[in-house]
Amino acid sequence: MPDRVALAVDGTQISCEAGITVAAALSDASVTRLRASVTGEPRGVLCGMGTCLECRVSIDGVRHQRACTRLVREGMDVATMDAAASSRPSAVGVEPTPLDCDVAVIGAGPAGVAAAVRAAESGARTVVLDEGLAPGGQIYRHRPGGEAPEAARRWIDRLAQSGAEVVGGASVFDVERRGEEAFRIFAEAPDGARVVTAKRLVLATGARELFLPFPGWTLPGVMGAGGAQALLKSGASVAGRTAVVGGSGPLLLPVAASLAKAGAEVALVAEQAGMASVAGFGVRLARFPGKLLEAARYRSAFLDTPYRSGTWVAQARGAGRVETAVVTDGRDSYEMACDLVAVAFGLVPNTELARLLGCQLSRTGVRVDADQQTTAPGVFCAGEPCGVAGVDVAIAEGEIAGLAASGDKARRRALEGARASGRALAARMERAFRPRPELRSLARPDTIVCRCEDAPVSALASCASAREAKLVSRAGMGPCQGRVCGPALEFLFGWDSDTVRPPARPALLGHLPGSN
Length: 516
Ligand SMILES: Cc1cc2nc3c(=O)[nH]c(=O)nc-3n(C[C@H](O)[C@H](O)[C@H](O)COP(=O)(O)OP(=O)(O)OC[C@H]3O[C@@H](n4cnc5c(N)ncnc54)[C@H](O)[C@@H]3O)c2cc1C
Ligand code: FES
Prior knowledge:
The chain is α/β, with parallel strands linked by helices. Helix content is 26%, strand content 24%.
């Protein structure tokens, strides 16, 4: 592979490192306004992981491509802000590539990789699908072909040797049960559709960030905390940028650390949880010395930066992109110059595919038994969809699910301790970092809540439910299908997320079942 590639962005030639994403290349070229919203507002990267669809650009004349999920290529032609008048290619008539297996694993994060390894090593024909370009999920995100982080390498090498077939870049948009012991999984990959037939399923679809609206949160340059980290891991340079990191939860620490290590000036880490909650959680961590050490290591990477608890970003300001952040502790507010605001309020489990299959949910995620079996026969679930609990739990649950799905339940016992202690810590974490009620009043009447449909608070405030909001304002009906605004609406108005329907991810018409 050449070291550098040349591509055109809105007609201007740029050169960038090979193997990085289009979003990273655009960020390095100071192109932060990627698409125009339905009311013409500029938008840029928010989630960095393929969920929000805010980074859509035209690539080689094909519209609506997620810049954060596509790698740069020599001669690529990228058009932002819908500058290119281009037509969408028809995929009607494209025959999907079929795959047949005993166990299909959806998601190749720590949980999915562990499940696939255990299933394949137990002799099951195993297929793993992930919309990411390389296995590893969010925590172990790395460039395809690049070196995986050390902590991930053991599992990723084991996956490569296990005999499991890994299909990267494959977005699963539908799953259906076909009789007692068969499922069909429909996915869209860059080179076409895939249909996988499996006897058993392991859902390991992870989590996404929780975004809560505040004035200015749609400005380019305001993104998720993990979103900024994902952009960085996919090749963007942040050297010389000034960042305000905010929101809630332990994730703020690795994010601030990685931004600082990459040369950004991290001006502030604003943790909305109060001092007593953060300190109480820290005391609890003493029982997990490894975690405490990890937190201290992250903190040491940005020692010059204040970490303020009981503080949050109340507003982002700028003309066309973020230039300042207004930060408050509820009494005093101050404005800080910055060109990157990385804010998220924790994580939301991805349960769409589980819900499509009729799996029951608890308050925290997909309901599972001791074998990680859901309430839907033949469907197992592991990691964050069962409730946000971190990487160690994800791996333990993935192993248990992979063993159980391949019919090998005897070895579960050894993994139960890690699962139980991790889940207990996660319950503490959820309580300690729960978003404070004051965050509900940040959004003003004209603050957009649904970024796909540009639906502001004023269009939603008189509605009684998410369903009514959809009818009145189309909130939740855009391409992200409510993955961003659904949890925000739940927090702001107490509305349950609405029902889920296929396709669970946007897909070309020709790739939908029955279209050929
Ligand atoms: C943006 C982000 C950054 C994070 N950074 C850190 C960090 O720095 N440190 C830390 O300790 N924890 C971090 N976490 C938390 C960490 O991800 C979890 O603790 C844990 O590793 C989760 O493992 P998992 O396998 O359950 O999920 P994930 O790692 O999220 O893996 C889920 C996988 O499923 C895939 N997927 C989801 N839906 C589909 C679909 N429909 N079709 C195909 N594939 C699909 C995704 O592409 C992903 O690869 C982060 C979380 C997020 C959301
Ligand atoms: S930033 Fe690319 S989909 Fe969210």
